[in-house]
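Continuing the series of single-chain predictions for the mutant panel. This is the parent chain; the variants come on the following pages.
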Amino acid sequence: MADTCWIGIDIGGTNLRIGAIGRENEVTAFEKRSTPQIFYSMDAGGELVRLIRDFIGAYGLEGVVKGICVGVPATLNRERTVVLQAPNIRGLDGRNVVGLLRETFGVPVWLMKDVCTALFYDREKYHVPQCELLLGIYIGTGIGNIICVNGKELIGRDGVAGELGHIPLTGSSELCGCGNTGCAEVTAGGMYLARLCETIFAPLPVSEIFNEKRNHPLILQYLERLAGIIATEINILNPDYVILGGGVPAMKGFPMEILLERIRSHTRKPYPEQGLQIIVAEDDEKKGVTGAVLYAKSRQDKRE
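Parent structure:
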């Protein structure tokens, strides 16, 4: 049994990961679960509590947990205590996750966007230097985005800055989980690929879509949309670095070279295109749980 640890939880639209992180940020226990199997009713708070209790009990962590860190694919309030809207997670909207877990387990609790957990991990892994503007763009079920200014996440007045996946695309009338129509992530996120495999490409497994259909006009159109969205943010912000990753780019056969070429094609010349630095992040099963703890430690160190 560890003498002290943090619990990191990375809640995704498809899978949930939970891990115990030791003093040196090493993962000492880890589990991956299906998100719909965890959040199967409207009592998302109770289900999250049961998940953590079961994990603590299974790995003998009673009395050694120093803090709990939770990343969610959601908009959060400015104080990072309440989930405002989690379009792909049932029953989390309006939940004061920090208050619930702090009261239940009696330890400090941090709540963050899941994209934050990925960026804090990748920033350390790829030795990204301190800079004015760092963008994290992660394509999974939706499109995750974080904007870091001088090492600190840009929050926004209401706490919902960086919702790149919810910029409107002309000509799209698809309903998004946020309630709007035409949001970028509906036709440029992983959910679009899943729909293609259920309809036009059926019965192709989504895991094989890039292996089998990478040159299909619909896939090239998908990459073009995604590149345009990413280049839009680059042109507006002129970042020092962009970290690009997520479950979709990690899929077998993903044509990263095409995406990168199209991003640069849409980026303004000569700048910011000439100095553009894009780091393609590898997928890591334990990235989210470790990154959640790195984020929490950074907040703790700054007394935020």
